[in-house]
Amino acid sequence: MSITLKQVSIITGNTEPEVFAAEELQKYLEKKNVAVVDGGYPITITYDNTLSRQDGFRVSADANGMTIAGGTEHAILYGVYKFLEQYAGVRYFLPGLEKISAGDISFEEGVLIDFTPAFEYRQINWNAVRDNAEWCTKQGINSCDADMSGKFGGKWSYGGLFVHTIGILTETGKWADPNPCLCDPENLKKAIKNVRAALEANPNTDIVSVSQNDNNTYCKCEKCQAVDEEEGSPSGNMLRFVNAIAADIAEDYPHVVIDTLAYNYTQAAPRITKPLPNVCVRLCSIRCCFMHPFTKCPNKSVWTKTPALRRDLVEWGKICKRIYIWDYTTNFKFYVPTFANFGALRENMQFYAENNVRGMFPQGNSQSISGEFGEVRAYLLAKLMWNPYMTEEEYSRHMDEFLEAYYGDGWTYLRKYIDQTTEWAKDGCMSIYENPFAAIPGEKYASMEETFDEWWNKAEELASEDQKENVRRSALQWQYLKLMLHPSLEGSKKLLHDVKSRDILWLERKYEVEDATDLSLSPDHWFDYRY
Q: Does residue 140 sit within a domain?
């Protein structure tokens, strides 16, 4: 039996997420010309403790009514938003940018959606979305930089700092200082004291980071070296330290997870020590090529170590039941020019899901709006964290829908640019710290310079007044690359003005081009990139 919504009544409980879910459902239904009245087709929004506590939800309907049920507070909201997305044609592209397609809301009797996300922890930090609790909730993201308490159902909450905490916990330094000796019992005692203090100060904490500082300098005293040799990796010494803290708090804080990194010198799994059940290992893909899916990378660059990541993820999976991923989705030395990684995002997310990863944190440019395609990536990454098993056709559809909504009628020209640079990137490898011409040589850009000029110009010409700035800002990537092809003082001054006037950053932690910079040089020579 087919059901078409014309008039509905909404029934729900009194918790903040339930009330908010009902309000949101009514708001969008009314935009679809569905009246909310007494005696209408009943839609019940409720908890169901038989559903997965990993944000599982179910939407079912028959002639007598519809039920949107969630196993968690988050899941109740997800049920509403995903029903609206799938059956009412609602798209939540960016904060302040949503589209609703025309037509009735119709469906057949039965279970409409029965879904549990593949990842228990989902967070994204691209600037456009990282601190917007409403957008994140609509996309199924359950942790962000904003307050998600109350009507949003809460979030995965960190006690203390997010990452690179070992120096602060042991009171030996800050996040960029050398890592402390992990065989020193005084350091362990201080770390336990400070972890407990963080938990006492934040009783709603779900996870505490006990993770190495952000450098490759670690203790090589006689005791530490002996442990490293025994374990076959410095990760063993780190894990013994982390396990000791996890064991100390387990009884008093049974719900808390201790989060550590498998990063740079600790990436390889140890031979002997295994993480305790309340320990999470966050593997970092920092040494990989991001132009190709991890499973298909030819590994042509000396900078990229993709095979090591594949090996290490498998090895950690043998001993750890809770693996999270710290992924990288931009070029941190070159925020503005093109980073042609769209051909890798979908398959990489699927690779993680297929290897028992339980949490995702794709890191992007969190410090400023994007002069490239950051907003597109943020949307696609949210979709992929929600459903890492989507087909290539679904991925392409999500991209097209976003491009059209964000850039306007000329969006197809930008899709051509993305497709061409993605295709070129297949011939080279590139890490997140390499020159823009590392994967795609300048000669290739030069061969299509006139065509690319035409595509970007047509995209701007066809955009509405509200969308033109989106095109102009994203076009900075091509402006940058053209200046690399044809360095000039005049062109540099224009690029400098166009980037600075929009408060866009050039690279991670670099806000300004120094006054003494020789602007007659190509922009990839404006900074000391050895930071």
A: no
Same domain, 192 and 298: no
Instruction: In whole angstroms, give the CA distance from residue 475 to residue 491.
Output: 14
- Residues 6 or more apart whose CB falls under 8 angstroms from that of 110 comprise 60, 61, 62
First to last CA, the chain: 64
Phi, psi of 195 (to 5 degrees): -65, -45
2: helix, strand or coil: strand
For residue 430, give its domain range: 285-531
Q: For residue 62, tell me if it sits in a domain.
A: yes
Q: pLDDT tens digits, residue range 150-172?
A: 999 998 888 888 899 999 999 99
- Please give the distance of CA 498 from its chain centroid, rounded to a whole number: 27
Cα separations (Å) of 61 from 23, 43, 67, 76, 183? 20, 9, 6, 16, 60
For residue 74, the model assigns a pLDDT of 92
Phi, psi of 92 (to 5 degrees): -105, 80
Task: Read off the pLDDT of residues 349-372 as tens digits, 9 standing for 90 and up.
Answer: 999 999 999 999 999 999 999 999
Q: Which residues are registered as beta bridge partners of 261?
A: 282
346 sits in the region (left: phi over 0; alpha: psi -120 to 50; else beta) called alpha
The residues near 487 (Cβ < 8 Å, ≥ 6 apart) are: 520, 521, 522
pLDDT digit string, tens, across residues 457-487: 999 999 999 999 999 999 999 999 999 999 9
CA 384, CA 344: separation in Å to the nearest integer? 12
pLDDT in tens, 402-455: 999 999 999 999 999 999 999 999 999 999 999 999 999 999 999 999 999 999
Distance CA 221, CA 237 (A): 12
Cβ contacts of 392 within 8 Å, gap of 6 or more: 346
State which H helix or E strand residue 16 sits in.
helix 16-31
Dihedral sign for Cα atoms in the order 4, 10, 12, 14: positive
Question: End of a domain among 55, 82, 115?
Answer: 115
Give me the pLDDT at residue 530, please.
Answer: 61
The two three-digit tokens of residue 173, written as one number: 């330094």
Measured distance CA(386)–CA(349) in Å, rounded: 10
On whether both 300 and 423 belong to a single domain, the answer is: yes
Number of domains in the chain: 3
Length of the chain: 531
Q: Are 422 and 430 in contact, with CB atoms under 8 Å apart? A: no
Mean pLDDT, rounded, for 387-411: 98
Given its phi and psi angles, is residue 435 left (phi above 0), alpha (psi -120 to 50 degrees) or beta?
beta
228 and 354 in a single domain? The answer is no
**Which residues make Cβ contacts (< 8 Å) with residue 136, sequence separation at least 6?**
124, 129, 142, 143, 144, 146, 148, 382
